Every structure is written in C-alpha cells, then in structure tokens.
Amino acid sequence: MSTIERADIQGFVLSGYAAMHEARYVFLEVADPAGARRWLGELASRVTTAIAPERVRCINVALTCRGLAALGLGEAQLSTFAPPFQEGMTTPYRRRVLGDVGPSAPDTWAWGGPSASGGTVPEDRVPEDRVPEDRVPEDRVHVLLLLFARDLDAMEPLLEAELSLATADGAFRHVHTLRPEPLPGRLSVGKFGVEHFGFADGMSQPVIRGSGQDGKLAGEEARRHVAATGEFVLGYPNGYGELTPSPWLPGPDGTKIDVGRNGTYLVVRQLKQDVHGFRELVRAHAGAAGSDPDAEARLAAKLVGRWYSGAPLARTPHRDDADLATDNAFGYAEVDPYGERCPIGAHIRRANPRDSIAPERARALELTNLHRILRRGRVYGPELPDDATDDDLVERGLIFMCISANLERQFEFVQQTWCNNPKFSNLYEEQDPLLGTPPPEGGLFTVQGSPIATRVRGLTNFVTVRGGAYFFLPGVRALLTLTTAT
Amino acid sequence: MPQSPFTILTPVLEEHEAALTELLRGIGDKVMEDRELGLSTLDRLHYASFSIVRGDDGPLLVFEGNIDGSTAAFLEHLLGTSPDGVDAVYRHCADYPALADGDRDATLSYLLSSDIGADTFFVAWPGQSLDMIRREELLRRWIQDFLDRPEQAALRQEDPVEVHRAVVKAVRDDPSVRWALEAEPLPFHVRRPRTVLALLAVPALAGLVSVVVAAVRPGPARRPVRLVLGALGVAAAGAVVRLRAAERADDQHEASRPTDWETVYAAWSKNLGQFRHREDTKGQNHLSSIADVKPGLFRLLTLRSVLAAIRAVATLSTVRGQLGGITSIHFARWVITPDRRLIFLSNFDGSWENYLGDFVDLAARGLTAVWTNTHNDVGFPHTTWLIEQGARDEARFKAFARYGMVPTLLWYSAYPQLSVANISNNRAIREGLRLPESVGGPEFWLRRL
C-alpha cells in the first residue's frame, strides 16, 4: 500500500505541469456512444500518467456523470459514484453548499449550468428564465480533455490532432474550450504565479504521502502538509486509515469491478474576478483611514491573509517581506490566536485554518488535513493594468481546479464550512471576503486589532462563478474498463 | 430558568399520514410567519420540530420541544395561544380530545401523557433563557455600533481600560440597555461546576474509603463487604464477556448479510433529496433520526446505561457549550421509545457534513457506545469493547446516520442567526461589561467585540 501505482494514475493528480506553459481544457459532448467509447479506449494509451514528467505535451481526460451515462452506463452502474458527482453542481442543495447564489447562480453560467430541458435535477425545479443563448448546459458537458503543451508551437498541432480524432466519424461534438493564460505569466519572487488581484498564489499545497515529495519533509512540517494518499487518490488509505468508498461496476456472478482505484474526483470552476471592484474597495477604505501610503496594501493583505508577495501576515504582520514569500511553515494558534496579525476571516485562514481549529495544535492539524484539496488552477484573461482607473469590462479570473477523493469532506467542506460559513471560528456574519456572496447592502469583514476591531463594510461580489462541474478522473485501467462496460 | 425537553409521541390515524405530512410541511415552509401554531410568537420556545417515524403499530407523530420552564406550563400556554393550530395537527392523531370539544384539561393531559421526555438531554448553555439570549445579542450589536460610530474614533487610540469605561458609561446612559449592568447569573452548577463536582466527590470518596477500609480491616463487616465486592466483580466480568459475545454475534450477522452495506446505501441514497429540501437554508440545521435497538435485554440495558452516563457527563461538565468536544450543538436528546427504538433529535450549527465529521473526529467513542446498540439496514460499523472502532469507520458511520434520518417536516429555531459560540460570546460580553476581570480584563473583553 505504501507505493503509489504511478503507471495507472493520470499525471494531473500528482502534477500541475508547471513546465507546460500552454493549456486547453476542451469540453466534448458524446454524439455517438460507440464511437466515443472507441476514442476513449484509444486515448487511454496516450494519456499522460504520473510515472515520469513529460517534456513536450500532456494529455489527461475526465468525465462527468452525464458523460458516463451518455457512454451508455445505466443508473445502477452509476449509483456507486460519489453523490455530488452523480447529482452535479447545480441542484438547489449544492447551490447552497457551494454558495452559488445571486450573481453566481448556475442559471447564467457560460457552461455547466442547468439545461433548458431540465436534465435530471432530482429536487425542485430551478428557474429557467435568464438563460443566455450561447451557453453550454450541463447535459452537454460530458468529457473534459485536458491538453498541456510546452509552448504554443507544441499546443497548436496537439489541439488540432486531438480535436480531429475526437470528432472523427461524429463520435463527439466539440462544445467549448477554456483557454488559460500561458505560464509563467507574472511571477512573485521568480517562482509563484500571481493571480489577478495581484497576489502570489499556489504556495501552499498538501503533499501526498507516498508521492516522493513527502520524504523531504519531517517533524512539524510533515504534520502540517503531508496528507494521506487516499485523500487524493481512491484505493489507498485516507486520513482515517480507511478506504474511501470507491465506485464499482457489477461484474459477472455478483463480483464487483473496482473502477475507482487510482482515480479521483476533479472539480472545475470558472471564477470571474472583479479586479477593479476589489481595488476600489481597498482604495476607499484605505483612503478613509488617513494618509498612510501603505494602507491600501495593508488592507488588501488583511483580506487575503498574505501580502502581495505571498508573505503570510502571520509571519510578518506589519510590512511585506519578499524573503518570506515562500514561507509556508506557519500556524496561527501560537502567534495569532485572536487574529490581530491575520484576521480570523481572511481568505487563507478560512481556506486552510491550519492549527487553529481545535484546542490542541497537533490534533488541530490532523483535523484540518482531513479537508485538504490539491489545487490545479490557472489564470485566464488579461491583467488589468495597475494604473487602470476604470473597469475595462474584460472578463478575467481563475480557472479553479482541484482534486479530492471525497468531494463532500474535502472540496465542499472547505467551501461551505470554512469559506462561506458566517459562523466560521466564532465569527457572526461575514463570509470569505473574496469568495463570499455579500448581501446587496454590501458585505462585512472584521479586522481584529488592538484595542478594538475595525469592521470593513461594503464588500462587493469580487468573485463570480461563471461555470463549473464535477468530473471523475479515472485511472488508466479504469478508463479502459469504463469504455468497455455494458 | 432551567430548560426542559419534551418529546410527544402520538399514533397517527390510519390514512391520515399524507394529510398530516402536507399540513406540517406547509407550516414548516413559512414557520416564522405562521400564526396558526404561532411557534415564533412563543417566548419560551428555543427549538421545536415535528416529524413522523415508524412505530410497531403504524406511524407516530413526534413533537419535539426545547423550552424554558416546565413542559406542563408551556403546553398550557400553547393551548391558550394556538387552539386551532393544535387541533389542526392533532386531529390526525388517534384518540385526540380536540380543544374545540371544550375539555381543555383532557387535551392537556393527552399531550402530557404522550410525552416521553428524554433519556439524555443536552443543553449548550443551561439556564440561559430565550429572553436572555435575545437581549444579549441586542446588547452586542448595540456596543459594536457604539464603537463603530465616527465620533468614537478617538477611542481607538485609548487604553482598553478607558474604552471599557466609555462603553459602560454609554450603556448606563441608555435606558434600553441599562439592564445589562445588573447581574443575571446562570444556575450555580453552570457557573461553578468544579464546586459542584467537589461537593459530590466528598461523599463519594468517603463512601469508597469506608468500603475499602471495611474490606481490609478485621471486623464483622469484612466478610459481607468482601462478598458484595466479589459479586460486583463477577457481574462486571460477566457483562464484559456478554458484551464481547454480542459483538461477535454482530460480526457474524454482518458476514452473512445477503447484500453489503454499500449497495444498500447506494440504492437508498436517491432519497437524500427529501432531507436536503431544507438543509443548509440557514446557518443551523435539525437532525432527526431513528434506529431499532438491537434485540435482547442486554442491548437495551447497555444503551440505557450509556445514555445515563452521558447524561451525567452533560450535567456535570466543567466545560459548557460542548458535548464530547463538539461545539456546535444547541440542544440534543436521545430518547428510547416504548417500542424499542432510539430517537435522536438535535439542533446544531453548520452543515450535516461538518456535524457528522465532528461526530467521527471528536466524539467517536461516546457515540459508538450509544449507536452500536442499534441497527438499521446499513448497519452500525464493526465495534469492539463498546467504544472502539465503530464510528471511526467514517464512510459507513455517515451512511448509517444518513440512512437513519427521518425528514423533519416542520422545524423552528428562535435564533437561527446565532451560533453556540455567538451565544456564549454575547454572554461573556455582557458579564465583562460589569466584571471585566471575569473574561480576563478589558483587553480580552474587547477582543470579543
């Protein structure tokens, strides 16, 4: 159990492919089930596995539940997949769990929203007005082809070749493509990508036990960052030392064919960022605070929990310090129990509260690590120039992707119980300052401080969901099994 | 004022279940506006719920209440304020003497005699009445608004002692909040749990010492005391042997089941929608569940003992606002029905996933000791020594718990906008106003704001 079956795991699970500067995320709709299965079976031999890093191009593939159904799997065969995956992202319940309400409601999503025909939404109906014409509804999002290439010269032929194979003989219809900005983009301290609000991103990722990375960490650092293999790959012990229920297909004579092993679930969400609105809020409040030239950067850092460079407030509360930009060896319990350095409700403290969620630090880390996700996001859309005085109305944001073996306990939990929960860590009525959906009169953010806290009001909707879906990212053998199952 | 639970269990008339379900769901959909039952107008009601569970002789209506004061006083008041609503609900129940028929005492005694109370009742903050909770929330908002006023900006440069003094003065000057400066203490056992424990420990220790002395020192009592101690030891050993035998029998039962639990749960999980209909529509949720007590007297006795032990811990706890480390429960109860089913009703903060995660992560042993004595078609996970393993099997325990859920048809919370932590923080703010040292001094008091 200690070794990971790299040859059977898709490479995207263990790597974000930072050396692959170009990426295209291609959505396909099954048109001819037999042809689609044939293509997927052939694709299995081209899929990039976790065995060794590729140098020029990488191909990975994931499927929605509707995609599996379109390939011909029946209800009974799908019933052992994780409930969120079966239900999809747009049911009334999941909207509440994920906070996809108001401007982020799925009805207006560019892709993945409810279909006009209704599909198989199991709960009460959703309103069907306000549906944009050119959107790609969830019942047409079947297969996600993840294409990566070293540069544009390598990407163009790859995209063309793969698209023509997929659509040959009418197996698939090509319905949508997401095109993230090429890497490296803007970098902080020459290493970490900068997202549109201007912050270095992606410094803190869980390390998978058995991935080889975990051997480099020891003691406190290992406790902080290493998470069980089964948290990210099905078929291995999870954070409880148990196997997370894995989907299976009924085999001959009552046997079960495990199709989960070496697979996992992939969350994709297109998050539009209102950079102008974010800067406006910071400007307005910093201006009101007086003539301090650093006030804007300080308030922005308070909202996020890190300075622009990535340096955590928990380590350097008063000024940005690029030397600490890569510092991920911090907690809150000892240095900042009251949020006077990094506010209790700051984005990174909600998204990963580290050692602060239980009275005992070591236990708190264990508990937090039951709710980790592997992030695989890339930025899309052009930057808003630093000196822009008006909103250019160009869409930009993050194609958020994350991997977790248990969608409910990991991704959805982080979203619901940490980020969007007004009662997070004894707070009263505020959500994640970046991800939350504030009320029409504006959201609240509390900056704890001495002698009294400052309440920042008037937060607007800085992040709007524009599309999303749950995918299954199968192991290579399982991909073959799924394409031959009847 | 002490809080009490009632669990009124009444048989639903044949063929009335659908109509009653519809009625209760209808009221539940607009529970804050409803004036027929008028739950939101009752000033002693913290939480209430209605659900329908299976009984041996047909469906049973469960009416759960978490109230200030006694059940009799509450129900009498309810019959006075909402006679039509009570009749509208209970006319679907067997042998109900309607208020409209004029004999109010008969109606009251019908409800009272159907109340099976709680075997274990947990209250996050015993003694804190609904009225106090509401007033202290208003006070918190009042103080924050005061501190946020532009004309108070200068306070930000002040010493915490000065800020505290300024707030106290402002509170004293405003008749709408002046009450906050008067003491309104919680019950003694909540305020001084250690004193209570010490007082209880003295006679217990004295008794223990005298028994040991009697068993050791030569004298007329030595022989009978030794006999009794010996008998107790044999009984305890017998109970352990019996327990392990029961657990092995469970394992055999598990090994021989025709369909494994994952298949049972996967097939059933299509029903999840009926629970999620109202789940997570506000910051709090209600969980209503039922499971059969395993057959035999042994399991029933074990379950009763475990519930009694948890009741003792919950009553004498030195740390309030939590049960087994779980800090999100406002009110919860277990109650065993006359036909051997275990009902669990709880009112909690946050999501189901978070709540059940806390069960597994923080309180697995205690909850295993309770639910291992029960079963349903998914089945409680493999348990040893009453408390080991069991709920630690996260996936199966969650499936067992989900499967055991009963749709809550009507649920009322008097303060859906307040978490357990908020209520205790508000309490500390109010106490600290008068006695800042009670919360660690003005600096710590201000951190709560």
Low-confidence stretches of chain B: none
Q: How would you describe the shape of chain A? A: globular
Number of helices of chain B: 17
Low-pLDDT regions of chain A = 118-131
Number of strands of chain A: 19
Name the strands of the widest sheet of chain B in spatial order. 4-6-7-5-8
Note the overall shape of chain B: globular
Number of strands of chain B: 11
Count of DSSP H/I helices of chain A: 14
How helix-rich are the residues of chain A, as a percent range?
Answer: 10-25%
Query: Oligomeric form of this entry?
Result: heterodimer
The number of distinct structural domains of chain A comes to: 2
Backbone structural class of chain B: alpha+beta
Helix content of chain B: 40-55%
Q: What is the residue-averaged pLDDT of chain A?
A: 91
Sheet with most strands of chain A: 5 strands, antiparallel
First and last CA, distance of chain A: 30 Å
Q: What amount of the residues of chain B lies in strands?
A: 15-25%
How much is the radius of gyration of chain B in Å? 25 Å
Mean pLDDT over the residues of chain B: 94
Order of H and E elements of chain B: EHEEHHHEHHHHHHHEHEEHHEEEHEHH
Written description of the protein model:
The complex is a heterodimer of chains A (486) and B (449). With 486 residues, chain A is α+β, with helices and mostly antiparallel strands. Chain A is built from 14 helices and 19 strands. In chain A, a hairpin with a 3-residue loop joins strand 7 and strand 8. Chain B has three domains: 3-124 and 259-413; 130-185 and 419-447, no CATH class; 190-255, no CATH class. Chain B has helices at residues 17-29, 71-81, 83-90, 104-113, 130-148, 160-173, 188-191, 193-216, 222-255, 261-268, 273-276, 297-316, 352-362, 364-371, 394-403, 420-434, 442-447, and strands spanning 3-11, 45-55, 58-68, 120-123, 284-293, 329-336, 341-349, 374-375, 383-384, 388-389, 408-413. A five-stranded antiparallel β-sheet of chain B has the order 4-6-7-5-8. A four-stranded antiparallel β-sheet of chain B has the order 1-3-2-11. In chain B, strands 9-10 form a two-stranded antiparallel ribbon. Classes of the chains: A alpha+beta (486), B alpha+beta (449). The A-B interface holds A 79-80, 83, 93, 96-97, 122-124, 238, 240, 242, 244-245, 338, 367, 370, 408-409, 412-413, 416-417, 421-423, 426, 428-429, 448, 450-453, 455 and B 144, 147-148, 155-156, 158-160, 163, 262-263, 266-267, 269-270, 272-273, 276-277, 279-281, 283, 349-351, 353-354, 357, 360-361, 392-395, 417, 419, 421-422, 425, 443, 446-447, 449.
